[in-house]
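Take a record:
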Amino acid sequence: MVRETVKLWRKHHLTYDQTKHVVQDVRRELGLSAPRERRRTVDRLDRQEIERLIETAYRRASSSGLMVKTLFYTGARVSEFVNLRVEDLHLALDPPQVYIAHAKGGSDGYVPILPALAQKLRTHLAGRRTGYVFESNRHDRYTPRAVQLMVRDVAHRAGIEKRVTPHRLRASVATLLLDAGMPLDQVQKFLRHKRIATTQIYAETSARNMGESYLRALGGHP
């Protein structure tokens, strides 16, 4: 049925409306229904997987370790991460903060980071006051694709079977913060979401993980 449908599209150059009609007929014949709503949870790495990923990244190269660690602890999108400049780091504040610019939808803002990460960033910069925080061998910023491939390679080396991307690191820190009790509106501000409904997806993931943890802890008891 699917093959015949594809042949029909190619042979007759169907318009959008004609294609839509054919798809509806195919669904009806196969007893399929269109999804009614998008998935309301997101996949994430647990704390042990995050630790393993960061440790493996440091074994790969110290720069890889710090990049993965910074990606995770800032919750930055990869497009924001590659554009981080030294001037965006405010490491003397308490707590230290990073200004995330070039944000999706223009939602720039400050996010806190751990003092230990701030110290590692100071060491990495070695007194440098300008330029991108993470620079390639050509002293230019990394491309988003290069960072994605690096994260994928580290995950493979770490033996993590899940598909690991910079966005999954963002989802992971969000749900870990919610699991730890951070209020939803604060997580929204940390992720720089304009709509709290977007952040709510991570909250639903957190609730799902809470249920799984509850069953693991108490499921064997009478």
About this structure: The chain has ten helices and three strands. The first strand starts at residue 89 and ends at 90. The mean pLDDT is 83. The chain has two domains: 1-36, 47-218.
